[in-house]
């Protein structure tokens, strides 16, 4: 396959790998396997394979009002990745997702990404079965079902081969940092904000684009995704904080030092299971 036949997601992922000085092989043949992963890299003596899935723009713009499920399209890609990696269960497998303009897909929201993995994001609280009255004081977030990695009241994980979902995106980091500064005091003169940003960033270029990834670790993966891999200045890891007694907590475990404030994901830990 030539460079011209890469998908937009593959092109962006290659740009990211090169930016991180990570040598890679495209569609490398692995002995005894009929299917080839899109990318293979070697990391600290470990082989890591990746498959890239693109979300393409709809052919026609949707009109009017309606309901859409934020998880369906992501779960379809997870299922495709699961099928692609069936022959690679002894490898660390990363499913790379790229949104090329699909308005009904959000690849940066923790509730949606983790919800696609573990179950629809929602809330639970105890209800008195005699009176039918719920105790809202005990309201807590939960994943309620249809997850691709685990199921409610799970006894066994459903998808242990995919080590992580990986959101690939292109950003304008200098411009976003300017917007952060303007947002602190909207009344401030734009020229003053630009002067301050230029003092912070000597090579300031508002048109600069950079690839970044968000790594969504799979808490039930057979082979965990390496915590030190993909730690660029604009990257984020939503890692596993705790796994105990079928209870999982995930939170931001890494954010790059140059990441604009508006892209930071620090939130209270998300709990899965009961």
Describe the protein's architecture and organization:
The protein is α/β, with parallel strands linked by helices and 274 residues long. It folds into 2 domains: 3-58 and 66-126 and 134-172 and 209-272, no CATH class; 173-206, no CATH class. The chain contains 5 helices and 11 strands; from the N terminus they run αβββαβαβββααββββ. The chain has helices spanning 8-19, 72-84, 110-118, 173-184, 190-200; strands spanning 25-26, 39-43, 46-55, 92-99, 119-124, 140-146, 162-171, 210-217, 236-244, 247-255, 270-272. The strands form 2 sheets. The protein has a 9-stranded mixed beta sheet. A two-stranded antiparallel sheet has the order 5-6. α4 crosses α5 (190-200). It is globular, with a radius of gyration of 21 Å. The protein starts with 7 loop residues before the first helix and ends with a strand.
Element layout with pairings:
Elements (H helix, E strand, L loop, with lengths): L7 H12 L5 E2 L12 E5 L2 E10 L16 H13 L7 E8 L10 H9 E6 L15 E7 L15 E10 L1 H12 L5 H11 L9 E8 L18 E9 L2 E9 L14 E3 L2
Parallel strand pairs: 3-4, 4-7, 8-9
Antiparallel strand pairs: 1-2, 2-3, 5-6, 7-8, 9-10, 10-11
User: Rg to the nearest angstrom?
Assistant: 21 Å
Anisotropy-based shape: globular
Number of helices: 5
The portion of residues assigned to helices is 10-25%
Question: What distinguishing features does this structure have?
Answer:
2 domains; two-stranded antiparallel ribbon; about 270 residues; 5 helices; alpha/beta; nine-stranded mixed beta sheet; about 20% helix
């Amino acid at each position: 396959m030539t460079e011209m036949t890469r998908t937009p997601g593959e092109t962006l992922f290659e740009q990211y790998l090169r930016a991180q000085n990570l040598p890679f092989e495209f569609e490398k043949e692995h002995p005894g396997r009929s299917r080839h992963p899109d990318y293979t890299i070697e990391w600290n003596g470990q082989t890591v394979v990746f498959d890239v899935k693109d979300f393409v723009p709809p052919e026609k713009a949707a009109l009017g009002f309606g309901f859409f499920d934020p998880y369906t399209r992501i779960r379809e890609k997870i299922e495709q990745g699961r099928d692609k990696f069936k022959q690679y269960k002894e490898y660390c497998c990363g499913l790379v997702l790229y949104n090329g303009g699909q308005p009904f897909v959000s690849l940066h929201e923790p509730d949606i990404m983790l919800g696609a993995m573990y179950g629809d994001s929602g809330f639970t609280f105890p209800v008195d079965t005699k009176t039918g009255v719920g105790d809202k004081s005990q309201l807590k977030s939960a994943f309620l079902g249809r997850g691709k990695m685990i199921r409610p009241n799970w006894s066994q994980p459903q998808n242990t081969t995919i080590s992580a979902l990986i959101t690939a995106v292109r950003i304008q980091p200098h411009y976003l940092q300017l917007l952060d500064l303007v947002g602190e005091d909207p009344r401030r003169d734009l020229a003053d904000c630009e002067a301050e940003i230029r003092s912070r960033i000597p090579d300031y270029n508002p048109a600069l684009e950079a690839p970044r990834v968000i790594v969504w670790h799979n808490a039930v993966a057979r082979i965990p995704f390496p915590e030190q891999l993909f730690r660029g200045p604009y990257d984020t890891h939503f890692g596993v904080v705790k796994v105990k007694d079928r209870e999982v907590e995930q939170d931001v475990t890494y954010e790059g030092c140059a990441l604009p404030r508006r892209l930071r994901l620090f939130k209270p830990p998300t709990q899965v299971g009961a």
